[in-house]
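Whether sequence alone determines local backbone shape is best considered at the level of individual chains. The sequence in question and its structure tokens are set out directly beneath this paragraph.

===
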Amino acid sequence: MSEEGIIVNLQDYSVHDGYGIRTLVFLKGCPLRCPWCQNPEAINPNYEIKYQASLCIECLKCAEVYRCDSIRKDKNKRIDRAKCNLCMQCVESCPSKAIARVGTRMSAEEVIKSIINYKPFYDTSEKGGVTFSGGEPTF
């Protein structure tokens, strides 16, 4: 059995969250609710949908396939989150990626396979490696 979690992002070549060159693994889920949180998209442990109005081309393909009537015609308030059932049909239909899923389910093995190729960079930089962040990685 493989351990799995929802990963928000794998960020390569970071030099700010630990010594040397690092990969940051941002995990989803945090019970702390800190007022200074730098990653609010990682608080909820489940998948979410994000919307970036600046990417939207107003084709409304998301509204054509979405079955729960949660897509609004208002570009600034595109998703009625009270009606959203997270079926991800709007995400799959959006050609401009203005609507996107936050998080990807990955096994520990998949995470390792994604970052192992960077080992030479970790080894040549002083104390480089991997930092698990979040969310709250111990959650």
In short: The mean pLDDT is 91. The radius of gyration is 18 Å.
